[in-house]
Design brief:
Length: 377
């Protein structure tokens, strides 16, 4: 028995930003976005589309939302005397960090204070029913999948922690996937977000929560990324390639919206937090090593993974994945990220015991030493 569920209304295609007024249906909104959005003309474009429906702009969202600067934003938005407190909808225009921040801002706490939300995050409890805002997510990167998932990653760098926000109402109400908004994305975030999407696809396959729909979406996403991302890095202004990558990231997001991520993501959080490695790189450089560990656990999973790489055996698939990453300039050797073989083995086994690591298809509790190189199957 299996089920697949995703409640997000998706509008996809170049120029689909123009559908935003129809999706709002007359409601007022706030625009949540990143500092460079004004210079790129995105704020003016949304203003032109919405007119008086747009009641304000919050454009201070930085990469990797941190509770230290989210707290005052949240408290100002939800204060009883705030002119924006009663605005029912947020439009999140940006990458995964913007959409994740909007998911935190949409939650209503009884006190109207962020510290109540932080307590719920730390204790893993649900907030009570309230007048939570809704969010329409408009990604400007092709990778995070946050526009079709209920989760948001929030960081507490001061205390060295990472929180995962998930409430029943943190699913976006709708997502607009418009590749035209991605054409100006610089090379580094294009690469990191594309590899994040590849990780989402593979992680949803070697996952204990996989189902036939999620696997089919993930296989299609991964195959498209393997063929499209190198071409896009050579021709970043190509709208057809941007649209193809946007589709792939959407498929991967839909896949892991039902499975969550697994071991590679569990590994990545400390690497990002402690080493400052961009999330998309941190969760992708280990993929060949995790692929090697996953192979052999389930014949159907093996078949899906081998089909992605047009491989006849596992070692061939691992080698092709490693070659793909290294051709993009991403080293797959943990030592290049500062880990000795012993430290890396410890990190893998610790990550396997975390919430995401436990989604991995193979238990590592009594596993043999973590492989450092691919071996033939």
């Amino acid at each position: 028995m299996w089920n697949f569920h995703n409640p997000v209304h998706v509008t996809n295609g170049p120029g689909s930003l123009d559908q935003l007024p129809a999706l709002l249906g007359g409601r007022s909104c706030l625009l949540i976005t990143f500092p460079e959005a004004r210079g790129l003309g995105l704020v003016d474009r949304v203003q032109d589309l919405l007119g008086a429906q747009l009641r304000g702009v919050i454009d201070q969202i930085e990469p990797n939302p941190d509770v230290q600067w989210l707290a005052p934003l949240y408290d100002n938005l939800h204060a009883a005397d705030s002119p924006h407190a009663a605005v029912p909808c947020l439009v999140a225009l940006g990458g995964g960090s913007v959409i994740d921040a909007a998911k935190a801002l949409l939650c209503a706490t009884p006190s109207g204070r962020f510290d109540a939300l932080l307590t719920a995050l730390e204790q893993g409890t649900a907030l009570p029913a309230a007048a939570h805002k809704s969010v329409i997510a408009i990604p400007t990167t092709a990778g995070t999948g946050s526009e079709v998932t209920p989760w948001a990653t929030l960081w507490d760098r001061q205390r060295g922690r990472k929180h995962s926000l998930h409430q029943r109402w943190t699913w976006p109400e709708a997502a607009i996937i418009d590749a035209q908004l991605m054409r100006s994305l610089p090379a580094a975030p294009t690469l990191a977000s594309g590899l994040d999407a590849l990780s989402h696809a593979l992680e949803s396959i070697w996952n204990v929560h996989r189902n036939p729909v999620s696997t089919a979406l993930a296989v299609q996403a991964a195959r498209r990324i393997l063929s499209c991302l190198p071409a896009l890095m050579r021709d970043p202004a190509n709208l057809l390639l941007r649209a193809s990558m946007a589709d792939a990231a959407l498929f991967a997001g839909l896949a892991f919206s039902n499975t969550r991520t697994a071991l590679a993501h569990s590994l990545s959080y400390d690497i990002t937090l402690q080493r400052g490695v961009a999330h998309g790189i941190a969760c992708s450089f280990s993929l060949p090593l995790v692929l090697e560990m996953a192979l052999g656990a389930d014949p159907l999973v093996d078949a899906a993974l081998l089909s992605i790489f047009d491989a006849q055996r596992g070692g061939q698939a691992v080698q092709r994945l490693r070659a793909f990453l290294e051709a993009l300039g991403v080293t797959t050797d943990p030592q290049d990220y500062g880990f000795s073989p012993e430290d890396w083995g410890t990190l893998v086994h610790n990550a396997a015991s975390g919430p995401r690591g436990r989604n991995f298809i193979r238990s590592l509790a009594a596993a043999s030493p973590v492989p450092a190189q691919a071996t033939p199957y």
